Amino acid sequence: MDAAISQLQVQDNRERVAAIQKLQAVLDRNQKSLNATDVGNLLNATVDLLKDRDHEVCQGALHVLASAASLAGDRLQLDFMALLPAIIDRLGDDKQSVRDAGRGLLLALMQVIFSPTMVIERISTNASQHYNCKVREEFVRVLDSAIRLFSLDELPVVQLLLPVVKSKNLHFLFWT
């Protein structure tokens, strides 16, 4: 695990994508939970990768974090707030695959670490009023997926959607 994490720091994008794929394979083979040191090292390495300009690197980092969430359990809970701004920014990425991976990570966090209501409430203030209309659109999709997957009757949907509806870019609300 440490060798795969250390390879994430290389400058060449192809090598970085290969290192992400290797780390994903290590996490997929891992049957036991991650210890606190591994979680810390993984988060430190992937937070920088989430800000990368290469969409394959960002998408891979989001997939690695989703896999790590299931293995880390509550150890990831303390560092979740540090991940939120980067995850929200990835929801506005130009590539749909990166936005899908970000949405998948948020849903994985809802399933494994936090309650869905807590995740939605934490991201709602930043995502629903974000300057990027793609982030607001993906927030609505995350909200829709959470309601469908978890039957969230206790969510104040009107209050969560009001900032999005007040925005000037409403074209995404009319998609089917």
Q: Which structural category do the helix and sheet elements fall into?
A: mainly alpha
Number of helices: 9
Report the helical percentage. Answer: 55-70%
Q: In what range is the share of β-strand residues?
A: under 5%
Main beta sheet strand tally, sense and closure? none
The averaged pLDDT comes out at 83
Name of the CATH superfamily = Leucine-rich Repeat Variant
Could you tell me the number of beta strands? 0
Radius of gyration (Å)? 16 Å
Query: What overall geometry do the principal axes of the alpha carbons give?
Result: globular
CATH fold descriptor: Leucine-rich Repeat Variant
Distance between the termini: 43 Å
Number of domains: 1
- The CATH class is Mainly Alpha
Query: What is the CATH architecture descriptor?
Result: Alpha Horseshoe
Uncertain runs with pLDDT below 50, 5 residues or more?
none
Helix/strand order, N-terminal first: HHHHHHHHH
Protein name: TOG domain-containing protein
Pfam family, one: CEP104-like_TOG
Organism: Selaginella moellendorffii
InterPro entries: ARM-like (IPR011989), ARM-type_fold (IPR016024)
Topology:
Elements lengths: L1 H5 L6 H17 L6 H14 L5 H18 L7 H11 L5 H17 L3 H13 L4 H18 L6 H10 L10
The gist of it:
This protein has 176 residues and is mostly helical.
Describe the protein.
This protein is mainly α and 176 residues long. The protein has one domain: Leucine-rich Repeat Variant. The protein has nine helices and no strands. Helix 6 packs antiparallel against helix 7. The longest helix has 18 residues. The protein starts with a helix and ends in a 10-residue tail after the last helix. The relative contact order is 0.10. The model has no long low-confidence stretch (mean pLDDT 83).
